[in-house]
C-alpha cells in the first residue's frame, strides 16, 4: 500500500490549532504551508506516475511534474503547483516571508483544489 499524500494536508490543517510549548505560531504556520505543498505535490506525482511520468527522485521533479501537467492539457494544475511551491519556498527559506496567515489559508485551499482536481 502506498502512502496517502492527502494525510499531509490533514496534518497541515490541524497544526495551526495546536498550542505547543516553545513552538511559535509562526513556526507552525510555516510548517503547515510546507506540508500543504507536499500533500499536493505527492498526490499529483502519484497520479502522474499512473500516466507514465517517471520522476528522478530529485529537486528536478518539481519542475518536471509541472511540465508534465502542462503537456497533458492541465496547465491549471501546473500553475497551482507552482504557486504552492513559491509559498513553500518563502515559508521554508525566507526570514521575512510576508503574510504567513494569507499564505497558509491559500495553501490549504489550493492544495485541496489539486487533490480534488486529480481525484
Characterise the protein shown here.
- This protein is an all-alpha fold.
- The protein has a single domain, classed as Up-down Bundle (Four Helix Bundle (Hemerythrin (Met), subunit A)).
- Helix content is 71%, strand content 0%.
- The chain is built from five helices and no strands.
- It has helices at 6-14, 25-49, 60-71, 75-93, 100-118.
- α1 runs antiparallel to α2 and α2 packs across α3.
- The model has no long low-confidence stretch (mean pLDDT 96).
What structural category characterises the helix and strand content? mainly alpha
Radius of gyration: 14 Å
Largest sheet: none
Percent helix among the residues?
A: over 70%
How much of the sequence lies in strands comes to under 5%
CATH topology: Four Helix Bundle (Hemerythrin (Met), subunit A)
Low-confidence stretches: none
Q: Can you tell me the CATH class?
A: Mainly Alpha
Count of folded domains: 1
Distance between the termini: 17 Å
Mean pLDDT across all amino acids: 96
**3D shape:** globular
Question: Count the helices. How many?
Answer: 5
Please identify, by name, the CATH architecture.
Answer: Up-down Bundle
Q: Tell me the series of helices and strands, N- to C-terminal.
A: HHHHH
Number of strands: 0
Amino acid at each position: 500500500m502506498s502512502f496517502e499524500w492527502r494525510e499531509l494536508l490533514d496534518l497541515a490543517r490541524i497544526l495551526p490549532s495546536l498550542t505547543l510549548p516553545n513552538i511559535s505560531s509562526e513556526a507552525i504556520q510555516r510548517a503547515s504551508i510546507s506540508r500543504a505543498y507536499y500533500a499536493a505535490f505527492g498526490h499529483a506525482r502519484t497520479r502522474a506516475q499512473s500516466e507514465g511520468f517517471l520522476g528522478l527522485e530529485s529537486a528536478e521533479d518539481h519542475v518536471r511534474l509541472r511540465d508534465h501537467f502542462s503537456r497533458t492539457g492541465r496547465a491549471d494544475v501546473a500553475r497551482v503547483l507552482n504557486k504552492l511551491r513559491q509559498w513553500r519556498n518563502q515559508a521554508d527559506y525566507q526570514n521575512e516571508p510576508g503574510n504567513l496567515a494569507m499564505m497558509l489559508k491559500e495553501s490549504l485551499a489550493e492544495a485541496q483544489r489539486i487533490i480534488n482536481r486529480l481525484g
